[in-house]
Structures are given as C-alpha cells and as structure tokens.
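Record filed here:
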Amino acid sequence: MKKINRGINQDTIQEFNRSLIISLLRKQGMCSRVQLANTTGLKQATVTNIINDFIHWGFVKEVGFLNGSKGRRSIGIAINTDNFRVIGVRIARKYYSVGLFDLTGKLHKLQRVETNLEDQPKEIFSNIKKMIQEFLNENQSYTILSIGVAIPGPFIQNEGRIGLMTEAEGWQDILIKKELEELYHIPVILEHDANAGVYTQQWHSKDAAECEVLIYVAIGQGIGAGIMINGEVMKGCLGTAGEIGHTCINFNGLKCSCGNTGCLEKYCSSIAFTNSVNDALKLNMTFEQIKELTKQGDKVCLQKYIESCEYLGIGVVNLINNFNPDMIILGDEMAHIEPKLMYETVCKTVKDRIIPEIWTNLKIGVSDIKNDSILHGAAIVAINEVFENPSGFINEN
C-alpha cells in the first residue's frame, strides 16, 4: 500500500512542477532552464527533465540565446504557439462570440454574431455549435486542446448550465458543457462571465496580479462581479457567487425575473440604460446607436449614463463593504462608452458612502484591455485547465 501511495504522490508532485514551470513561462515570455530553476526553487535536473518532456510534446520550444552572468549564454525557452489552440466562447443576452487562441492567450480569429431576445436559446446554441465546428474544420493543422465558455450568471457550475439569463428565458434547460463535450470530445470548461473577466485582468495587469483581493465588475447586458482572493476565484457552493446584478438597491423597485425586486442590473446594465434613453426620447434605438450619441455629447444620453453610473457606484459600495478589496476594475460594454466619466461618477458615489480609511486603501479603475475581456477570459480558463494538467491533455490527444 505504501508503494502505491508514494507513486500517486510522486505523480502529483511531478504534475504540479510541470504546471508551475509552464505557467511561469507564460508570464515571463522567455526563460532559460537556469532561470526557471532559480525562480521556482526546483533542481536544475528536474527543470531539464520537464522541459525535455514539454519539447517532446510540443508545448515549448527553444528560441535562441539569452545572455547570463559572466558573459555566459544560455538557450531560451518559450511557449510554442505553433502546435496547439484553444477555443473561447462568450454567450451574452444579445450576442455570442467565438475566438481561436494560442497557449499564450493571443487571439488569432474572432467571430461575433448579434442575436435578438426573441430568438430561441436552443436555436442560438445550435448556431454556436455550428460556428465551433467551423473553427475546428478550418484549423485542422492545430490540436484544439480545450474549449472555454463564459456565460452569464447565475451559473450552476456542478450541472454545467446557466441558472437564469434575465430577459432571455430558456437557457436554464440547456446542459451546455455536456452537449459540447459529447459533440466534440474536447474538454469544456464553463465559467461565469465576470470570473472570466477577472482572470483576464490578473493575466495582463501586474498591479491586479499582486492584489490580495481583486474584483472585476462586468457592466454589460447583465451585471456580475468576479471576486479573486489570493489568486483564487470565489465561486460559492453552486458557482453563483458574485451575482452583484441581483443584489437589491431598492426594495420597492422594479421586479426582476430572478424573483427579487430592485436588482442592480435593472438600473445600470446596458439593457437598462438603452431602455431608459428610449423611454425618455420616445424612440427605439439600439445600444450601439445610443452609445455613439453618448460619445457625441447628447444631453439626454449623457444624463442617463451618469444616472446608470451612480447606481453602479451604489452596487460597488456593497461589494467594498462585503469584501474589502485592494482593487476594483470596471469593465465590459457600459465601461467602453465613456470610461473617464464612469470612473469619476463611480468614485464620487463610492467616496461619499464609505469610511475614509477604506477609501484611502482602495484602488478603482476601468479596464484598459482593448478587446473583450470576458471572451479572452474564456480562453484563459481553457488554457489554465491545460496548464494545470499538461500531461493529461497530451494523453487525451
């Protein structure tokens, strides 16, 4: 029995060390074997064996020379972007996106399709599956290791499905993970869209990566918060943690399809903002049209945008008082309209409603990720799954 346990433990340690090294290579971009040993604390022989495995499997490659101490040169090692890809998918209330990414998180192909709230979820999901199949057909020279899917919450993690998509009923009946894995025979990882967003911030921002408590607030067609504590995303027992959009800011407020009243997303989501402007102007414009008018300085659109940001600020106050974060990053559709105005309005609202000591120890910012943070986050969770068990993915493929 002791022999069996020792074998299992050794395998676990070896896989942990592999994960440690490939994750470090992703962060650093290029390292020598000596640098990897010094940074990780592993023996150089252990690092050499792992790198040899990675080169054999095609995960990493040698990429020239690095200058070391005393004029010595060593061979550089980097993630190999030639062999493998992951697919990232984002499902939102009014659109879906599919992207093809390499193992560094670089986007190589993107397709986005607008949908209507009247469209049936099963039909939309069927079209998503067709698009994924197109990506697979067009990229047969690569091995697609995994598929990451970012979905609105509440997200029932253990069942691999959406618990509720407000204003788009029917998604709760679709077992997204099960159907995709049965169709493609590729590991599928589902993640709450705001959690996907916080992974992206951690990957691309040094300040965010160093936070003890980091929160990313996705202000899109719904509102969600990705809460990362010491590098781990807080998910809750079912995976529904961070549903700030369904926290009450007005107990006599608008009725929400979740069953609550006065939910935050009824006041500051992109859907709520669009409805508010259209009601005021007696028009029927799209979000994109209103976005452009707001950017051009339309008085009604700007006033409604400021009101939305004030409501958002109240939701942020609740997050601060619950989690005492180092940093809060605002992102997604609403943040892309007027980032500076959102930042100033949210900061003023928050500063007026929390104690000074908390304010002086808090950073609030707007995401500077140019592309869709949540779609990229879907790819990141797929890549992380590979990096946590690299040998397992090679064996599966």
In short: The longest strand covers residues 143-151.
